[in-house]
Amino acid sequence: MQKINPRWTMGLGFLLFAVGDIWMSTISARDTSIAVIVAPLLIVGIGFAFSISSLTGVAVNTVPNHFAGMASGTTSLLRDFGFTLGPAVIGSIALSRAAAEIQSKVASTPALQKALEAFNAAPAHAPAAEKPALEAAVGAVNSGPLGANGVPATVKLPTGQTVPFNPLHDVAFTALDRAYALGYLVCGLSALFAALLVMLALGGTTHNTQLSAESLAEG
């Protein structure tokens, strides 16, 4: 029976990665339904299974028998390294993009500037009991996009009246939505490049583990 060339299964895995991530980049964070993300995440999961299993198989089957454990351990190490490095890089790209968008929006909107100045000055005019909470809110809003998005846009007073509070909440939410869409797009395009690289550049077919004098001696 003819064996499947591992570059096709690995390439298919990366291609499914690309499809799922690019699909995710089109979904707005304002859509809170879980149903809209099930299909793209399922596609990414299937792509992961194809690509990682093929990658491990290629690494193990292209070294002499006595190096199989080393090859397997190396692929596991690189996979875990990618799990750490990938989110850090994409998160940095997304948060930098969101911060720049918020800064640009504030700089181009005088009304937003005035609202932000009033918000930042609020702790100085607040009663002593409310001052720590207001200072914490101001600090969070000025800490970056995630902090600005985490403080609510409105608060309810003890009288039951709802009043505006954080002027940057909606701006930060929109900026983060667009920024993480860009992050998913970067992931998708990277996976697409990896798929093309694997299918065009990776040669050979699956075969038995290479034998050597050392591996035969160990047996």
Automatic annotation (TrEMBL):
What's the chief localization of this chain?
A: membrane
What keywords would UniProt list here? Membrane, Transmembrane, Transmembrane helix, Transport
Question: Where, subcellularly, is it found?
Answer: Membrane
Per the UniProt record, which residue ranges are transmembrane?
34-60, 182-202
In Swiss-Prot or TrEMBL terms, this protein is called: MFS transporter
| InterPro entries reported for this sequence | MFS_trans_sf (IPR036259)
The membrane topology term of the UniProt record is: Multi-pass membrane protein
Q: Which SUPFAM superfamilies does the entry link to? A: MFS general substrate transporter
